[in-house]
Amino acid sequence: MRQLPTPQKVMRKGYDAVRSARSRLDSLVLVPPSADDWPRVTAEHLSLLDGRTLNFCVRVPGEVTASAASLLLGGGSSPVVVPLTLVQRGDGHVEAQGTAVLDLLEADADDSPVPAGVRRFLLDAGQWRLSVAFTDASGTERRYALAKAPKVMADGPTVPEPVRSDGTYCRLIASGTGRAYVSLGRDDAEAEIVSLRIGWSEVTLEGRLLNAPADECRGDVELVRRNGKSTRVVPATWRGDTFVCSIRVADFGGAAAKEQIFDVRLQRPRRRSLKVSRRRTDVRSPGDVFRMPHRLLTAEDDTALRINPYYTPIGSLAFRAAHLPSGR
């Protein structure tokens, strides 16, 4: 007889379906059509290597005799201009190709290396719509709105946008009408796990605070019991934007044989607490890759606690914990 799936597995599959749908929607940004949405050309290739290096290729329309071409970011009279190179193909068509490094304007002091011969452009946070300009020998310019390149490969084990250590992002998105955009910005404040080490008598949690000012780096860790909503505070030691705390048997409250669930949060001065979450990763299904073991913790009075740290479907850290009756 076929075994029925457990409720946890059913819920996990449901969350996976929601995350998959959300991932597809994240590539769309519903913005109203603009006056320059047409005419259009579709990119032959449009990608962001390492989350900052834009690679671009578009076929020159047959009705255009181009002597120069540019990729334009933004609208109005002063867009950011990325020069393109015209390449004659063997089938008689002409392509406009180019590469550029895109970074946030606040990253001006960043020393990240730039490939030789590639220009770096520092942009304000926001959504930059993409256009292509072709210029003929007489100097006449024709502009086309850029449509996002069609997907040529199925989704792989990783998401397209790599994780940046500084919390910023650069993504390719499309409007509801299919026009291509580049979106740059910085994520909201987050608390992520650096490591979680389970010993014989304590759990050592190391994490860090992202996208938050330095004066917020001095909060303690909370263990919030999911049903009773009671909270126990575990002191944390800070070094810069990283924190370390040791969680012991006593931090899970009085002895109870029934399993209880505790959510882990990071306090912040004068602001709401943050859920402590899985280390950011570009793995598409991290729940299938990153797993934690069950373990027994023993206190000085020989009290034993069965503990199972795990990640919730949204990626935040929680503990399942139950005290073992003495004599077992």
Oligomer: single chain
SS-derived structural category? mainly beta
Give the overall shape.
elongated
Output the number of helix runs: 1
What does this structure look like?
- With 328 residues, this protein is mostly beta strands.
- 6% of the residues lie in helices and 47% in strands.
- The protein has one helix and 22 strands.
- It has one helix spanning 7-26; strands spanning 28-29, 40-49, 53-59, 68-73, 80-88, 94-104, 119-123, 126-135, 141-147, 168-175, 180-186, 190-198, 202-210, 221-225, 231-234, 237-239, 242-248, 260-268, 271-277, 295-298, 304-311, 317-324.
- The strands form two sheets. Strands 12, 13, 14, 15, 16, 17, 18, 19, 20, 21 and 22 form an eleven-stranded mixed β-sheet that branches. A seven-stranded mixed β-barrel has the order 2-3-6-5-4-8-9.
- Strand 8 and strand 9 (141-147) form a beta hairpin.
- The longest helix has 20 residues, at 7-26.
- The radius of gyration is 26 Å and the shape is elongated.
- The relative contact order is 0.13.
- Mean pLDDT is 83; it is low at 23-30.
